[in-house]
Structure formats: C-alpha cells, structure tokens
Amino acid sequence: MKALVLVRYGEIALKKGNRSRFEKILVKNIRARLVAFKDLHIHSSEGRILIDTSGDTREVLHEAAGVFGVVGTRLIYKVPTEWEEILSGALSILKDDPRTHSAKIFAIRAKRKYKGFPFTSEDIGRELGSQVIDTFPNWTVGLKNPEVCVRVDVHKDDTYISVEEVQGPGGLPVGTAGRLGFLLSGGIDSPVAGYLMQKRGAEIFPIYFHSFPYTGNQALNKVKDLARVLARNQFRMDMWIVHFTHIQETIHERCLPRYGVILNRRMMVRLAEKISLKENYAGLVTGDCLGQVASQTLGNMDAVGQATGMQIYRPILTYDKTEITKKARLIGTYDISIRPYEDCCTLFVDTHPTTNAGQDIIRTEEKKLDIEELIEDALKKTKIEKIK
Predict the structure, then answer these.
(1) Is 299 helix (H, G, I), strand (E, B) or coil?
(2) Is 163 in the same domain as 190?
(3) What pTM was estimated for this model as a whole?
(4) pLDDT for 124-139, tens place per residue?
(5) 26 and 90 share one domain
(6) β-bridge mates for residue 172, sequence order
C-alpha cells in the first residue's frame, strides 16, 4: 500500500471566489516548510492536498501539520476501490499501528463519495467494524471518544484509509492578509502577538530596537532566536535592527523622567512607521497588553498611537499574563524569552512612570528633542538581517 499525507484545511473552504488563491498560498507555504525533504510531490485538486514523499512520511505528517491554515494532517493509505482490498488494507494498517497493544475503544468513519460502490457508508462501517472486533476481540465500539479511529474515504478508482491524524493550528495561510511591521522585543509578550497575527494570514517583519552597549550581543541574539521561531511560519523574513542608543540617551538627558517610557515608545513607532512605509507594510504589530505595565494603560497607548498615522494591531490586548505565558510555551518562544538578557525597554525606566500621559505635556517634552534629526540618524545606522 502506498502511504501519503493528506492535508486538511477548514476556513479556506469558506472563501468562495478567493478559495483558489488561498489554497495556492497554502501549498506554497507547505513546500517552504518541507524544503528539507527530497522527492516531495504535492498535489492539490478537488479541495484535497496530498503529499507524496519517498522520505519519512510520519515526519512529513508532523511538519506539515504546523503550517497555518492546516486543520490537521492524516497518514493515509491508498488501495483500489474494491471491498476485499479495503478490508484487508484496513486490518493490515491496524495490525501495524503501535496503539493496538493498548487501545480498547475504536470507531469507523466511512464516506462513500463514489456512489457506484455497492456498499453505503453505513454498510462499510458495520462490516468493517465487525471484522475489526473479530481481529481484536478486546476492543469495543465508542463513537464519541475512540482511542483509534479508522477513516475510509471511497472514491471511484482509489480508496483512502487512515488511522493516524495530527491536529494543525488552523487559521489562514501566512501571506493572505498582507505584510506588517512587527515591533519585536526580547520579552514574552511580543513573540506571542506576532504568532497570532501570522495565524490570521499576515506576514510579519520584525523591527528590533537595539541600544548597544547597554544591551549587548546576547540580547540581540536572543531576539534573533525568537525571530527564527516565528520565521518557520512564513516564506521569508527580514529583521530590522534599529540603533536606538542615542535616542534613549537624549530623552533621558533632556526630558522629565516619568515621561521617558512614553517618549521612547513614540519614537519607536515613528521609526517603525518610516520603515513600514518604505517597505509597503500595511500596519504595525505590538505586544501591548492592557494594564500590564505603565506604558500599556488606555491613556498611554493612545498617546503612543498618536505618534503614527499607521494602524497599530495589538492581538494580545485582552490576554492576562497566564494566558500569554501558556501560549509562549506552546509556540516555543518562552524558554528563549526568559533568558536573562534585557532589551532597550528596560533601560532608564523611572521608578514612578506616568500612567496617563496627556498630549499637552507630551508635546512640551518633545519640543526638547530634534525628532527628525534623531530619526534620520537612527535609520542611517539601521541594519537588515535575513532570518532563516
């Protein structure tokens, strides 16, 4: 029997006229995710994506399941659409499955898509189920929560049988919702925010504010490692490393300390806006979480947002720290984020920062700065690194 990987998608099927475009981008992203596998063939037709490989099929099964837009992947076996072939194939697959030694509850899910086949879906389930019980007498049928689920999809020429499935993240394929500038720090929050925007189909391009020598190469490498985790979800990723030292020093020297955090963040979004306009990014993504720190009150987020004309997306705005940490562990960024190397956001922070910066006082403080000169100088020293 020939083993293949079936990729299932969900939300894409609802896109009607745009379904073909979404499916093509999904296939492209799957190819990019599986680039290390040789002799790989991906076929897409009739709403089905099939992966044929001469390599480790189970490894492909798990890797493909990590692509946004994928609801799940199944390891399927193709047999001729003849009852004896279906029966012997299903029993052979079950005998080779390691779960047969411990499982006790099973179910059959059959779909007769080819109506010329003499058995109905119910007939297939009943007859195959009877043979499974004869082969594994300790098993019982449990349709709600089976430990082993045998799926049989009957088509005209071939029938596909599967007993192994890996759940995918769902969402939409990255690249279907546009490109965004992504303010990435070394903390726990921002990588989670970037991940969630990717899950809704957006490509993200990290913008990191580096304050050397206050933050050294260890802090920079930490952020690069976070970007690499997220880069697995999209075809390409450029990371902007913005030299932010002089801006922070100038604000610290000239402005009232309690407004330093807000003034710094306003400069960050101005710089991110400049980069985003140049690169045709449609907006900015931040890891802001309402009320978590002084800069993330409603008043202060409004004060920061007014420094740019671009839309700012805050996907974790309503999450609490427990939810964010749980998600960070799940996506593989948490252990990197807790490395003891801090980024520029922790520098020069006043012990009593304002929680509601008014526009009048902000304008007064910013008159002490040559904003355009500071931005131009920072951009001249900005570097781009391709993340793989």
Answers:
(1) helix
(2) no
(3) 0.89
(4) 999 999 999 999 999 9
(5) yes
(6) 200
